[in-house]
Structures are given as C-alpha cells and as structure tokens.
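Researcher: I'm preparing a figure for a lab meeting and need a structural model of a single chain. I don't have an experimental structure, so a prediction will have to do for now. The sequence is pasted below. Please return the structure as tokens so I can convert it later.
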Amino acid sequence: MNLNAFFEHWKIHENPFRGEEARQDPVFLRLDGSLRAQQRSQAAAAMTNDRGPTTPGTVGNARTERAGSSEDAEDPSNGGSGTGGAGGSGRTTVVIPAATHPDFEKIIGQPDRPSTSIVFGERGSGKTAIRIQIADRIARFNAQRPDARCLLVAYDDLNPILDRFVARVDNDRKPDPAEALTKFRLVDHIDALLAIVVPRLVDSLLKERQDDDPMDLGPEPRRSIRRAEAGVRQELLLLQALYDRPEGGGGASAGSGFAASLSNTVDSIASSAANGSLGGTGASAAGASGINGISGRREGTSSLSDSAAGPGQGGGGGGGGGGAAERTGRLRRALRLRLPTRVYVWTALAYIGWIVPAALIVYELATDKLSSKMDVWAYLAIASVLLYLLVIAKRSIWDRLAYLRVGHRVRRQIRVVSRSDVSYARSLRQIDPALIDPAVLPVSSSDDQRYALLERLRRVLRRFGYASIVVIIDRVDEPTLISGDPDRMRSVVWPMFNNKFLQHPGMGIKMLLPMELRHALFRESAAFFHEARLDKQNLIERLTWSGPMLYDLCNARLRACRPAGTEPIGLLDLFAEDVSRQDLIEALEHMHQPRDAFKMLYQCLSDHCAAVTDEQALWRIPRHILDNARKTHADRLQQFQRGVRPA
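Model: Understood. Here is the structure written out token by token.
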C-alpha cells in the first residue's frame, strides 16, 4: 500500500506530517490563518460545516467519540479551528489554540505597547512558527486599528548584513570572518534596522519596487507627509540620505575609501573645467573637519531651479553610488523641500559672477587702457577676476571636498550599508545644514545619534499611522558566515543584550534564539546580566512542548488536511484499537518538539503502508509500528544531543 491510498481512505488530501520548516509548510500556514483571502474563505466554510450537527459515519465513529475531548479544545466556539484562522459570522479568530504554544501570549505581548521577549529553543521547537504567528497577529491588529498600527520589522535575514560588514571590516589578505564578527557593535544593529525600514519607506513614497513587499503607508502617503511639519520632512530626507540602498549609477564601490572618492572628485572637476561648465556642490563648509563650521541657516526662497545642486544632485548624475543621491533628489521634490539657501546663493554667484569682471575687461579694451600703464580700473578688473575664481574654487572644490570628508566619516561608521563617500556626499549636501552636525550624524561609535535617528524614524512613521515597532530576530544560526557556530552567534547577538536598546520606547524586540546561546548566556558575568537586565525582558529559557500539547497540535494539523463537510476524525482514529490516547501522548512526549513529533508520525505512516498490501486493506496503524518509531526517534534524539549524529 502506498501513502496516497491510505490518505484517500481517510479523506486526507495532504500529508499533515510532512512539513519540517514552518516557512514552507502549507499546513501550518492554513492553521495560522496566514493564507490569502480565498483560503480564508474556504477555512470559514469548513468551520461552518463543522459547527453543524454530525451523524455517525462509517469511518472511525467509536474512535471519534474517544477523541472528543481534544476536538472540543479545537472547536471554533472556543476561538480555534482545525482549518484556518477565520471565524464564523465574519469574526476573525486570534490564533488557533492547538497550533499555538502556551507561551505565545507572553512572547507577543500587546502590539500597541510592544515589549521585548527573549526566547531560547531547540531547532524544530517552533521558533519560526512563532515568528509567522506574530506577523499574522500584528496584521490583524493593524486591520482593526489603521490609525495606530504596529510596524513589523523582520530582522531574520542576516546574510547580506554580515557580508557587507565583514567586507568592510576585514581588509586583510587572509580574511578571518570570526575575528571580524567580534567587532560587531550595537550601533551596527541599529544601523541595520534603519537600513531595512528606510529603503522600503522611500520605495513606497516614490512608488518604486512595488512588487518587492511594499510598505503600507495608507491611501495617499505623499499628501500625508507633505502636511507634516518641515522638520519631520527634513528628518525623513536625512534618514534617506544616510540609510538608503546604494543601487543605481556606477562608480565607486562600497569599499572605496576617501582617496578614491577624492580622485573621482578631482576628475569630475577637471572634466567640468575642460567642458567649460560649472561643477556643483552643496552648502559651504568651513574648518578642516568639513563639519564643525557649517552653520544652521534654513532653506531659502530663491527661485533658482534644482540645477543649483549641480551634477549628481537632485537629478542624479554619474559617480559612485549615484542611485541613492538621485533618490535623495526625487524624495526632496516629493516632500516639497527646497535646497539650502547658500546653494542658490553660491550657484547664482558662479553663473552670473563673471559679468562684473567681463564688463571691466571689455571697458579696458574699449578704452585701450591696457596698452598703457595700469590704472584703477585695471586693478579692479584683475581683482574681480580673482574673486570670481575664488567663488568657482569654493563651489567646485572646497565645498565638494568638505562634503566628501563628511561622507567619509559617515561611511566609516555605517558599516552595514554598501555606499561610497561620494554617494553620501551627494545626498548630504541636499540636507538642511542644521542637520549636518556631529550631534546628528552617525560619525562616531556613540549610540546617542543612533537612538536619536530611531526617534526620528518613529516621528516619520507616525505620520503614516504607525504608532509602534516590533522587531523579530530569528534564524541567527543560518547565515553563511555563522553556519551554526555558537561563538560567532554570540559575537553577533550579544551586543543587543543592552537594556537601553531592549527597552527603547515604542519598540519591542522579539529574539528567537537557538539553545546554544542559552548555554553561553548562563556562563556570562554578573556585569553582563546587570547591563542586559534579563529580569525585565520576558525571558523564556526553553521553548518546550509536552505530550498533550503535541497531541493537540497533530490533531489540528490532521483536521486541516481534510476537506470541508467531512466527518471529523482525530489522530487516535488512525491507530489500532490497542493504541490508547495515553500511548500516543507518551510517544509524543519523548519527541519534545513539533518537528521530531512530525517525523515520528510520518515514519509510522510510511512503515505501516510498507508492511501491508492493498488487498489487506488495513487502515489502522498497529501498536508495534508506533513502538518501533518511538524507539528509533528517541535513540536518534539522544545521539544528536551527544553529538554522535545529525538531527
């Protein structure tokens, strides 16, 4: 007999115990209610049918009565269903109890007042499933409260972040990723979170990459942000200038240093001079640092066009990482923000300042005074030419080098974004000069500027109806540079064990961590625990599943794999009469977690079908099959814990 014949007899349209990864498990997605509207409506129809009175059928009638208590726990009237997350009469259930870990409510907390949770669990214990359930709960919360939504930030794909970080930090001929990861800081995590949210926010405002998980900003996001105060719009432009993605024009790579950027700038200036054109820079900057001497004058009211920003600004232009600078210009125009006043002033002087020296020279030539001795007008002509050349030098060289220095300092600190000095310089010179300040920009390893930038992001998000943020940290053992190494995981995760970060107002951090980090955590010093304050972080030391919990979960999955209108059955109905509910619960108790429980039941189904023929028509799994599967998988788990065999 094959499995298909077994499932056809029991009217099971899909193997309920095949999935081992929640992200690729359609049964779990139906249980969690995360499928699309069509699947939700099908689940609601199935649940409506299940509510009606049932008559005894030919399949497992007596066994169904024995399993009645577990099915009562899954009844839709109690807030759950075996087939989906939709309730009758238009009511949406929260999460099916049988498919949810008892600690779920402690982990998720309240989306409108998010809190931090730290969860440790073995591989296969359901951490990723909890992550999906959190996303589904927040989606339903947002649907009910569109004016006070919660933004979910998935911080679970660390591969690109760690790759960029190691490429930036590890410049040795013999790269050592393990040593490079020890340099990962808390501010790098904050930069990474901002680099995840800000590009999506800008994409939605500029209507770009709409097919790549766009952020929901409401029906008219541009009108909403244009009504905001100028300070909020300037803060959004600052966030984009710092944390937008680098895609776009070619040129300097993310790893290019200040020398390469300076070389590109000199080449650009030389090219502009050869073509008789004027290169563009932004606001003026004084002092050797290029930052400290910048004044705080607000944007002006000049009627000059955006061309005052010069090449690579506003309209884009070539050069290193021009994509982000181009988006800065497009976002600035979408926000209806003007360039700083000094940009217009120096651009006007560069374009019309030649008139005075030219007029004096023409006058000298017309009166033929240059052939005689030098007079006052000749000296004035020479002085005006020199002044004009100083204006050109300041606008085309001094300002550009000053902003390059600012961009270089920013690039050195933001180590998880692949942008060049030139890219940062071209974006920052479109920003209000009051924001080009060491107290605002992330130009040091201090976390004060990062927390301030997080608050700026929250102020911007409030304009789009987001009142809180939930960050989910998961799969930290999966990046290529970590590959399950506990020491490397520790290097990346430990900086986030900071009470100020974990208790940041309006933001909840949900850390779903592998069990190896729990063992490392308990070996830390008292000073570490004093800084982390784990007593305030909703700590769950181990995500455990009891036998009855796994039994209910398997029952829910089984019912989810049967079509609507069929008579309900339980897991117990698939086994012979000499197998009791307690036998199943004890077997599942030895598995400890859902993934191993599914593997054991899958083996029971496979072994039974392999041992009987179609002619025998034995549709119930005998006790010895269950005992063999339990022993096999219990031994496998013990060997795995001793490190003898893989999971």
